[in-house]
Each structure stands twice: as C-alpha cells, then as structure tokens.
Automatic annotation (TrEMBL):
Primary enzyme class: hydrolase
The protein's role, per its UniProt record: Removes 5-oxoproline from various penultimate amino acid residues except L-proline.
UniProt-annotated location(s): Cytoplasm
The protein's name in its UniProt record: Pyroglutamyl-peptidase I
Domain of life the protein comes from: Bacteria
Active-site residues, record numbering mapped to chain: 82, 145
Cellular component, GO annotation: cytosol
InterPro entries attached to this UniProt entry: Peptidase_C15 (IPR000816), Peptidase_C15-like (IPR016125), Peptidase_C15-like_sf (IPR036440), PGPEP1_Cys_AS (IPR033694), PGPEP1_Glu_AS (IPR033693)
CDD domains assigned: Peptidase_C15 (cd00501)
Family statement: Belongs to the peptidase C15 family.
GO biological processes: proteolysis
Amino acid sequence: MTIDVLLSGFAPFDGAATNESWEAVREAVPALVERGVDAEAVELPVEFGTASERLEEAVRGLRPRLVVAVGLAAGRTAITPERVAINIRDARIPDNAGASPVDEPVVPGAPVGRFSTLPVKAMVAALAAGEVPAAVSQTAGTYVCNDVFYALQHLLATDPALEGIRGGFVHVPSADVVDSPATARALVRMVEAALSTEADVRLAGGAEH
Ligand code: PCA
C-alpha cells in the first residue's frame, strides 16, 4: 500500500484529558482526504521507545510519501515545524509508562542529530497570511516528541527499504492559544506545502538564542 501522508498525534499526558496534537491530526485527515490527499493517522502513546515503534509499524504498513509527526508544545504561541532532532532522552516528567530516562541516547551510537527532511521553511511560508502564526523551531526538546522525531529520521535515513520517504515533526500550541480546528486547518496547509515542495525555499527562519 502507498499513501500520500501519514500523520501521527499523541495521547494525553501530564494529567491532561486530551492532547491537542491528536485532536488536530484527527480533524486534518478527513479534510486532506476531501482535498484529494490520501492521508492516514496514528495515535501514539506518550512512552519513550514504544511511541516510535508504533510509528515505525505504521510507516512500514502504509508506505507514505511523507510522515508528519505532531506533538503538543504547551506554552508555544505558534505552530512550529522542527528543524532538527537530537539523539538524547532527558525526561523532565515521567512518561505515561513511568519511565524517566536522563541523558540516554535515543539510538546508541547514532549521530548526535538528524535534520527534518520536510521543507520546514516552505511549510511556515504556507501559513504566512493565515490565522495561525508559524515559525521554524530549533529544538523539539528532549522528551517523547524528540524521541519519536529522532527515531523517525534515523529510520528513514538508514533503512534502504524506506528510501525516498520524507519525514519530520511539527509542534502545535495548546488549545487555549489556538483552537484545534484552526490547528487542523494549518496542518492541512503545511502538509499540502510539503507534498508540493521537493527542495525547501530559502527564507530566513533562524534565531539568535
Ligand atoms: N508533547 C510532548 C510529548 C507528547 C506531546 O504531545 C513533547 O513535546 O515531548
């Protein structure tokens, strides 16, 4: 089977009843399908290792052209495609299985970082005049989102059977900053931009700190 895009979102964590990443992904998929994009979604547990295994299973089963993993970044005020995943686990709070790894690699012996293979600048540009602010983020943190992001980029970079599949990660704000329908619409635009952009556009998107 081959599809255009596989989106993932996360289960609730840290005492919350819902996770905006899954709410938005769940709404984005039918909207993409309506627009002719063959899209599927998978919900991931907030658990180191297990989450990325779940995503890997879905990637192998569905053979998407693009993988866009989505997570909640409470406190952010923009929808933020992540530039780079780092090979570290450092949990501020236990994951949903009670694990609290500190200063452990995601993949032992693998490179310190791996870049997104999504056109992050084009994705931000696609939202320029939209209702949701967007910006490139330079860090996905060191918790389960970065764990999934790093494991995904490592998988896509090292398994020849998955050659050509592009992937990356997008953090979304909490619903009190941007509601889930607006986040879902933003995700739709970002996915369409990623599908239609092979080489990223050259736009400034850096930061001084
Ligand atoms: N956000 C967390 C993990 C799950 C989620 O939605 C993170 O940013 O690592």
